[in-house]
Amino acid sequence: MSINIGNSNRIKKSIIAENSKIPEKKENRKWHEKHPIFIAVVAAVISGIVLKFSVWDKMIQIIEHLFGDQL
Length: 71
Prior knowledge:
3 helices; 46% helix; mainly alpha
């Protein structure tokens, strides 16, 4: 058993170290997939603004008129 050093001992497609890091393929995620919390906050703010409109007062009056004094 002898060890030859030179061109006859080529290493191909093998892992030499146990903890070697192999670069993984990066996933190209879209902007909305990267920032779901930001989108949720923006949606909450927009829905809050919509609920502040005076048209909802009219809707409440219509519902109260339909059900009378039950509410």
